[in-house]
Amino acid sequence: MGRIVLTGILLIGLAGCLQSAPKPPTTGILSSQSLPAAMQGVHAKKLFGEQDRGSEHAPAAYGSYARGCLAGGVALPETGPTWQAMRLSRNRNWGHPQTIDFVQDLSRAAAQQPGWNGLYVGDISQPRGGPMTSGHASHQLGLDADIWLNRADRLNLSRAEREGLSAISMQRANGAYTNDKWSRSHHEIVKAAAKDPRTARIFIFAGAKAQMCRDETGDRAWLNKVRPWWGHHYHFHVRLNCPDNTSGCVPQEPPPPGDGCAEAEEWVRNILNPPPPDPKAPPPKPKRELTMQDLPQQCVAVLQAN
Fold this sequence. Notes:
- By secondary structure, the protein is α+β, with helices and mostly antiparallel strands.
- The protein has a single domain, classed as Muramoyl-pentapeptide Carboxypeptidase, domain 2 (2-Layer Sandwich), CATH 3.30.1380.10.
- Helices cover 26% and strands 15% of the residues.
- The chain contains eight helices and 13 strands.
- It has helices spanning 2-15, 44-49, 97-110, 159-164, 184-195, 206-215, 261-272, 298-304; strands spanning 60-64, 67-71, 74-75, 79-80, 83-85, 94-95, 119-121, 144-148, 171-172, 177-178, 199-204, 226-228, 235-240.
- A four-stranded mixed β-sheet has the order 8-13-11-12.
- The longest helix is centred in the N-terminal third of the chain and has 14 residues, at 2-15.
- The protein is globular, with a radius of gyration of 20 Å.
- The chain starts with a helix and ends with a helix.
């Protein structure tokens, strides 16, 4: 039955009958016999990395943030009234329409901060989502977006400047604290992103979360969505919820109850005084490259569509 469903999906995509997205798969795994020959034994990141535009489907996210794909992706315009997309050579300014709308809305909020004209936007997704050729394990559904922490005071950067401009780190003491470049404007922009009902989580370095916990004197509910994570001191990472009335998109688990500030302080303590390694801890498993058999069935049709 799985082969019949997949064949029907492919015929719909290839025939150009694009009024609706493919139906959700009955299982999350494809058999090797179901795959087109050109996709067998090939890393999924290569197949998705070769796509230069979105598929002609109704917008849909299939799978999970780290094992999925994007149908009907649209590009964030390279420059807008309150944003600029960075690192254009990567062609990662594509996303679900919900994400593109969110980024534009957040950029308008950022433009209200003193000295900010908007946002510099980093990676969102490849044109059809899927595993990226480098740099991210997630960003596969077009529902993740990296927002640079640089103050976006110029929105007339050339393509060359957008390739060469460096993102600015906001951390000190290996991420336990913010440095003198962190400002109340950063706090308010992250807050605006977290208070948006479309947002599932925000990832930022532990020192920033701890600082926002110390500085927030009003409603603290939004802090629940802001979670500490390694490496996010040049940008913060917004993850949006699966769009309403969709099937086939695996939602992000909600964060634990509370504002998460005690957890952030624990991160800080562990950065400053790292606990000794657990001698009984199993060695990390080697990372395996994803293939099409790791992704939902619809991702074959997303790749093969016009």
